[in-house]
Amino acid sequence: MASKPSILHLGDPPRWHADLYSKLTTHFNVITPTAAERERPEFLKALKEKRWGNFIAIMRPFWNTGGEGGRVDREMISLFPEGVKVYASAGAGFDWVDTDILAERGIVYCNGAAASSDSVADSALFLIISTFRNLAWSQMAARSGNPDELFDAHKHSPTTAINPGGRILGIVGLGNIGYRIAQKAYLGLNMKIAYHDLFRKPKSVEEAVGATYYDTLDEMLGAADCIIVATPFSGKQLFTAEKFRKFKRGSRLINIARGPLVNEADLVEALKSGQLSACGLDVFENEPHVNKELCGLKQATLTAHTAGGTIDTHIGFEELCYKNTLGALLEGKAITPVNLHLIKAGKSKL
């Protein structure tokens, strides 16, 4: 009897989806490296030694474990067995893995963004409301325990606070998360939706949220009352002093995508000058370090990269990881591939 193909499982054992994991073990030999083996030096050594044989897939179902090997870069990818077809992982962002190099090998990379869309969108609504209503100022004053600061915020923060309803929300990147934000802001806050994306969405998708498409980012920046960043980081900083000058004066910036997309020193200057009235950041340029000046600004609502941080998201990450692996290997079709467009025709291993 032929032996089952092997797949590499990086991280904790299954928690919520024993049925899907059982299906994996029925069809495949699941190899689980130890925590020590997942550390980069030992992981690379094991790959060189072919310690785990010629496995055909890698899966990382949980975000908090499985990434001990560090960046999935050319050094690491070059050591993968020739037969590897898919790398399925938890997590929405994929700036920690060189998807283009995986594509060179015909390996499909799948992320878990679809599992976190609701959680991230809910957090985005919080940041939208906070930046329009001066809630960071109000919260800082209340937490200070100082009666004078509380009274000052109580008296003066409403003089510049406005409701988001009827205002224009400009979304940079209308992917899964960006579109879920649009749906909730449109239906829940009665906001007008604008967006800029490399690819315009079908008319039916736009009409469902009353969205207006902008060909250029600069044009949208000048029209929107609030800009929200929901696009992947491609290695280039997107929001610098030059871009902030394009914003509608007194507008707002929210970033729930990746910290390095925003130059925080330039953002501080834009806030101080009044070019921007407020910002809401869940991610930071130099995480885990937060710009000290931002920390002291009452116009800045800051959260600890927890926009997607719910149990619901983690349950969904695990499920999607297993389903991507099963779909890719058994049906030749992954659910959430992110680098298919980078794989040359006929080179995909699925």
From TrEMBL:
A Pfam entry, by short name: 2-Hacid_dh_C
Gene3D superfamilies, per the entry: NAD(P)-binding Rossmann-like Domain
UniProt keyword terms in alphabetical order: Oxidoreductase
Keyword set includes Oxidoreductase: yes
InterPro entries per the UniProt record, alphabetical: D-isomer_2-hydroxyacid_DH, D-isomer_DH_CS, D-isomer_DH_NAD-bd, NAD(P)-bd_dom_sf
Keyword Oxidoreductase: yes
MF GO annotations: glyoxylate reductase (NADPH) activity; hydroxypyruvate reductase [NAD(P)H] activity; NAD binding
GO cellular component, one term: cytosol
Limits of the D-isomer specific 2-hydroxyacid dehydrogenase NAD-binding domain: 126-307
Protein name: Putative D-mandelate dehydrogenase
Source organism of this protein record: Aureobasidium pullulans (Black yeast)
